[in-house]
Amino acid sequence: MPSTLYLIPTPIAENAEHTLPLYVVEIVQKLDVFIVERAKTARHFVKSLEPEKAIQEMTFTEIGQHSSQEEAEQTFKEAVSVGKDIGLLSEAGCPGVADPGALIVALAHKMGIKVVPLVGPSSLLLALMSSGMNGQRFTFHGYLSPKRPELAKELRQLENLSRQHDQTQLFIETPYRAQMVLEVALQSLQPDTVFGIAQDLTGMAEFNRALEIAAWRKLTLKPLEKLPAVFLLYKPRR
């Protein structure tokens, strides 16, 4: 039988395996070759789903910032050569979206291998769905600058893009810079720009709110938790 590449979603919050559909669990249980963003967390996730084979009998090859793309491609090609199915795992959420696994998906298409995306949690889509912003037109920018002056400039650029194209603008940030992003946004954006923060979606510490900058400035807020965050902004046309 020809191989299939399964794009396997993983929970985006701790202890949130309940957010995965049953059919995803059943597929993962039968696989023994995985290409992953981080092997340690991937093994922990797969083991929690009680797979048919022992973890020691499985292959986990990393593809990421500190890993070799060539090694991941070789693992993929070897599995395909013997008709094995392969699972692609992101560190959290959906593989191929803000994730280095897109390289393996592209390789699968070039080789004529069937690609099957599985349903599961995506922090970007969940944040957009719950923001009340424009869900017809939106753009994701990944990470913005970690430096305050450059970040302020980039936020104003996104604000202009949002107004010009009637688009919601999304970006992400590491846990320890989330509070800084909020502070710079409150200082830099115009009062009627809608700004959203989504942290730990589906988790116990979930924080999810979208307000105009003017409304944010009136609130007395405790510092944001050091958790991964999706930020959104939308500048309405007036």
Walk me through the topology.
Elements: E1 4-8, H1 22-30, E2 33-36, H2 39-48, E3 59-62, H3 69-81, E4 86-89, H4 102-110, E5 114-117, H5 123-129, E6 138-143, H6 148-165, E7 168-173, H7 178-188, E8 194-199, E9 207-212, H8 213-218, E10 229-234
Helix pairs in contact: 6-7
Characterization of the model:
The chain is of the alpha/beta class. The chain folds into two domains: 4-117, Tetrapyrrole methylase, N-terminal domain (Cobalt-precorrin-4 Transmethylase, domain 1, 3-Layer(aba) Sandwich), CATH 3.40.1010; 123-234, Methyltransferase, Cobalt-precorrin-4 Transmethylase, Domain 2 (2-Layer Sandwich). The protein has helices at 22-30, 39-48, 69-81, 102-110, 123-129, 148-165, 178-188, 213-218, and strands at residues 4-8, 33-36, 59-62, 86-89, 114-117, 138-143, 168-173, 194-199, 207-212, 229-234. A hairpin with a 7-residue loop joins strand 8 and strand 9 (207-212). Helix 6 (148-165) crosses helix 7 (178-188). The protein is elongated and about 60 Å long.
Brief summary:
The chain has 238 residues and is an alpha/beta fold. The protein has eight helices and ten strands. Helix 6 packs across helix 7.
Number of strands: 10
User: Largest sheet, if any?
Assistant: 5 strands, parallel
Spatial arrangement of strands, main beta sheet: 3-2-4-1-5
- Ranges where pLDDT stays below 50 over 5 or more residues in a row are none
- Architecture of the largest domain, CATH level 2? 3-Layer(aba) Sandwich
Fraction of residues in helices? 25-40%
Helix and strand sequence = EHEHEHEHEHEHEHEEHE
What overall geometry do the principal axes of the alpha carbons give? elongated
Q: Please identify the structural class as seen in this structure.
A: alpha/beta
Number of distinct helices: 8
CATH topology of the largest domain: Cobalt-precorrin-4 Transmethylase, domain 1
CATH top level class name of the largest domain: Alpha Beta
- Beta-strand portion reads 15-25%
Question: CATH superfamily membership of the largest domain, which one?
Answer: Tetrapyrrole methylase, N-terminal domain
Give the overall pLDDT as a whole number.
95
Give me the Rg, rounded. Answer: 20 Å
Tally of separate domains: 2
* Amino-to-carboxy terminus distance: 58 Å
